[in-house]
Amino acid sequence: MSGLDVERIRKDFPVLSRELPGGRPLIYLDSGNSSQKPVQVIEAMREHLTMHYSNVGRAHHALGAESTEAYEDARDKVAAFVGAPSRDEVIFTKNASEAINLVAYAFGNPLNTDERFRLAPGDEIVITEMEHHSNIVPWQFAAQRSGATLRWFGVTDEGRLDLSNLDELVNERTKIVAFAHQSNVLGTVNSISPILARARQVGALVLLDSSQAVPHKKVDVAELGVDFIAFTGHKMVGPSGIGVLWGKSELLNAMPPFLGGGEMIEAVWMDHSTYAPLPHKFEAGTPPIVEAVGLGAAVDYLSEIGMPEIKAWEQHLTGYALEALQEISGLQVIGPRTLVARGGTVSFTLKTSGGMDIHPHDVGQVLDDVFGIAVRVGHHCARPLHLRFGIPATTRASLYLYNTTDEIDALVRGLRHVQKVFE
């Protein structure tokens, strides 16, 4: 177990002390959807907005200099947090979805003459059946624009990627393999090395959707060895409206701009333009300035606590939750049921003692109304994965550094109550 002082950490998050109507204490088990924010992040954003705010990279006055410095300082913090060799490889976006779209836009774009990004009929894109829609739909767009073929890895009954056809699926026609670092539904932490090794053999690029990984463990892009990772601020105690694309500078330099406008240009004529160097080539217009400052504060907060300590605490919580939930008759965990290569996201279905299915929407409603327990219900922006398991939806409890075993016990009591309600 980690040595985290969880009670002290909880005091940093004002909302966790809130009572809901009827005197119900809030039990927040939905951090995989969006995490709560510590006062350190809230205050950093408030301070910048009230005392230092100005547009960045444009104004030649004191506020402009302070705001630009704070914005770029946040980039430095993010680069260090993920082990980026260069700060210029960190591109600020509005979320992970935009970061993935940015890369997908480069493929088959007529402005891009680099062979690595050529996409035409006969070429292939490979994803997986467990992806968030954010890592499915952009590649569907790319395939539709170019005539390329979209292919995917299946998922085993245990919630792992089925790599049995790896060599057939990732082949000489493959241009990019894009897959989740950690599943937002199953909690599965995917094995990167075999897919990366095969991609390198055939000359394909590799993108990781690390939205569910970066908030929960140490992620080092140099150690990963992939070409791109995407993640988002709001899942890592930072604000919404800010995301990150990290990419190797050689590849980013070869890619055309995603959006056109102010700040991403070097010079503009009426008939053509030249573009600013990295990272600004991909940051058109006024960026999310205060949100970047908040993300920098979130990085400071997580770094001070320590990502190894956060991971260890979440592993303890996850083991406790898996054991407790699987003692509920009629509850089925969808995904890995051990701690091997899995994170703190636990999705499940629930039946009554008589075997009647209880819809996840009903589960979530009763948990919230009676116990103040916030979970997510539905297909969690991963409908193909639910179709694979033959279920319309699941209930998902997702754990983070501020959760406790007492809250898991409350969830178990709440689920038993739900079963009684629908008997």
Give a structural overview:
- With 423 residues, the chain is of the alpha/beta class.
- It has two domains: 6-30 and 306-421, Aspartate Aminotransferase, domain 1; 42-304, Type I PLP-dependent aspartate aminotransferase-like (Major domain) (Aspartate Aminotransferase, domain 2), CATH 3.40.640.
- 37% of the residues lie in helices and 17% in strands.
- The protein has 14 helices and 18 strands.
- The strands form five sheets. Strands 4-10-9-8-7-5-6 form a seven-stranded mixed β-sheet, with helices on both faces. Strands 13, 14, 15, 17 and 18 form a five-stranded antiparallel β-sheet that branches. A two-stranded antiparallel ribbon has the order 1-2.
- Helix 3 crosses helix 10, helix 4 (96-106) packs parallel to helix 5 and helix 12 packs across helix 14.
- The longest helix is centred in the N-terminal third of the chain and has 20 residues, at 62-81.
List the helices and strands and how they pair.
Elements: H1 6-11, E1 19-20, E2 24-25, E3 27-28, H2 39-52, H3 62-81, E4 90-93, H4 96-106, E5 124-128, H5 137-146, E6 149-153, H6 166-169, E7 174-180, H7 193-202, E8 205-209, H8 221-224, E9 228-232, E10 243-247, H9 249-254, E11 265-268, E12 273-275, H10 289-305, H11 307-325, E13 331-334, E14 345-351, E15 357-358, H12 360-371, E16 373-374, E17 376-378, H13 383-389, E18 394-398, H14 405-421
Parallel strand pairs: 3-16, 5-6, 5-7, 7-8, 8-9
Antiparallel strand pairs: 1-2, 4-10, 9-10, 11-12, 13-14, 14-15, 14-18, 17-18
Helix pairs in contact: 2-10, 3-10, 4-5, 11-14, 12-14
Family: Belongs to the class-V pyridoxal-phosphate-dependent aminotransferase family. Csd subfamily.
Organism: Acrocarpospora corrugata
Function: Catalyzes the removal of elemental sulfur and selenium atoms from L-cysteine, L-cystine, L-selenocysteine, and L-selenocystine to produce L-alanine.
